[in-house]
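Whiteboard transcription, Tuesday session. T.W. wrote the structure tokens on the left side:
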């Protein structure tokens, strides 16, 4: 009786030359039918051609000792993943018509733990401002709900109507994927927003992916960006651990405002996913090398957790609801975030222009609390030449929102901020501000400031190690109602 399925059973050569993807696809299909794990041959080099072929993984997969070469030169379809990790469980019907911000319970008629994603196509959020301006995206939220109908955490927005719902049972048995060295031969496409997704796409709840290395070769002076070598979406309870990633070169294009922009290109992508952990992850490229874009991009996520990671950037693009960063090092692009709930940063070294960059293009919105404990910050002094903008005054929180732009939701800055034991690692004698003047250098006239953000209620700073004076803001009129305690 077979104990596992191998790629060689279906004709894989493993010499790094012949296209092994058809055999790989068939092997995973057979493994799914028989309920057996898949095991790669140690020492094999599996070549994956640019053809549009996907292998669907539904059973444990062991890649230790094997190498995979993903050739992205002249892809048939740039959006087709190489591997897709999926559940064999079918989605379920969930009669949900509305949701209220802060809601913590719904009716769950399935009597199963579920992953749920909802949308309201008739309300646009995250209406982006700036060089990559757009008309926004459908109001979206994702969460888990247990058998009794209790949500993992409160709903982030009001949903007056729900035009789309996806509900899927959370797999009870954990799926394991382990090992393997992957090399992407980079695309040679024109530098524009044609994102490549030739990757490992995880869409199955309760999965563990670890001990994988990813390298990138053949990057030119031009190329299209990447969505993420490991992409996690529409699922919950996934652990990504002991992974070696590679940051991608920065390429330039013309943004929607008709001006040059740097294109984000990622090795990690997380979208509408819940309770996703990254543990002991790092990257091959120097986290301080500004020729390479930040490693991770995320949208609409809930409960992200990072521990013992050394990466060039953390970024919550279209919002995260609840996040913890613990014992990490964040490189030249630092910590970028907008979102909801509690954001905890502990025992972490942060580089970049601020401790927390509240993304300007989405209004600097954080609807919740931020706690920073036992961290250090090395302020960046470099000039961002593309934006032709000198560094702003030193500030722990960098925000910009003069109230003239509607982002689709009411913006606010963190309700409560606690900073306990932060070391600022520079010798500047210039004043250090908690917040930048978020009206900016050329604010809109007062008559146009219809969407000003709410100011924080309380900011407490303890045990701040800095060689200069600390002030709340250079424009104190913006913080008239904020209680500020600095001990």
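and on the right, the sequence the group agreed on:
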């Amino acid at each position: 009786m077979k104990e596992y399925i191998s790629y060689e059973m279906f004709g894989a050569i493993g010499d790094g030359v012949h296209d092994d993807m058809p055999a790989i696809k068939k092997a995973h299909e057979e493994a799914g039918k028989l309920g057996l794990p898949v095991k790669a041959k140690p020492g094999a080099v599996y070549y994956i051609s640019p053809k549009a072929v996907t292998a669907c993984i539904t059973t444990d997969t062991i890649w230790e000792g094997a190498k995979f070469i993903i050739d992205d030169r002249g892809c048939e379809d740039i959006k087709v993943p190489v591997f897709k990790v999926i559940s064999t469980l079918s989605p379920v019907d969930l009669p949900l018509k509305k949701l209220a911000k802060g809601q913590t319970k719904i009716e769950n008629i399935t009597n199963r733990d579920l992953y749920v994603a909802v949308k309201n196509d008739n309300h646009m959020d995250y209406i982006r401002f700036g060089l990559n301006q757009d008309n926004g995206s459908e109001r979206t939220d994702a969460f888990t709900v247990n058998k009794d109908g209790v949500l993992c955490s409160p709903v982030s927005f009001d949903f007056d109507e729900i035009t789309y719902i996806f509900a899927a049972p959370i797999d009870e048995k954990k799926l394991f994927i382990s090992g393997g060295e992957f090399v992407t031969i980079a695309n040679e496409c024109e530098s524009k927003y044609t994102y490549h997704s030739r990757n490992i796409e995880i869409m199955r709840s309760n999965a563990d992916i670890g001990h994988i290395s990813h390298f990138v070769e053949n990057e030119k002076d031009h190329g299209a960006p990447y969505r993420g070598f490991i992409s996690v979406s529409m699922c919950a309870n996934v652990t990504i651990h002991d992974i070696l990633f590679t940051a991608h070169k920065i390429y330039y294009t013309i943004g929607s405002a008709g001006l040059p922009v740097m294109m984000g290109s990622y090795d990690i992508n997380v979208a509408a996913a819940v309770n996703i952990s990254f543990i002991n992850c790092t990257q091959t490229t120097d986290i301080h090398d500004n020729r390479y874009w930040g490693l991770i991009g995320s949208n609409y996520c809930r409960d992200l957790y990072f521990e013992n990671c050394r990466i060039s950037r953390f970024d919550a693009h279209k919002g995260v609801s609840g996040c913890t960063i613990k014992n990490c090092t964040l490189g030249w692009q630092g910590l970028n975030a907008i979102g909801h709930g509690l954001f905890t940063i502990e025992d972490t070294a942060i580089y970049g222009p601020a401790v927390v960059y509240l993304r300007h293009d989405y209004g600097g919105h954080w609807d919740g609390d931020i706690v920073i404990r036992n961290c250090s910050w090395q302020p960046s002094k470099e000039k961002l030449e593309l934006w032709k903008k000198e560094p702003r005054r030193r500030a722990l929180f960098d925000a910009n929102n003069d109230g003239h732009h509607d982002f689709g939701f009411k913006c606010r800055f963190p309700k409560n901020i606690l900073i306990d034991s932060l070391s600022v690692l520079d010798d500047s004698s210039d004043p250090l501000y908690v917040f930048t003047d978020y009206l900016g250098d050329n604010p809109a006239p007062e008559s146009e400031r219809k969407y000003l953000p709410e100011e924080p209620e309380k900011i407490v700073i303890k045990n701040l190690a800095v060689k200069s004076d600390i002030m709340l803001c250079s424009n104190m009129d913006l913080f008239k109602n904020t209680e500020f305690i600095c001990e």
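Someone added at the bottom: The chain is about 5% helix and 40% strand.
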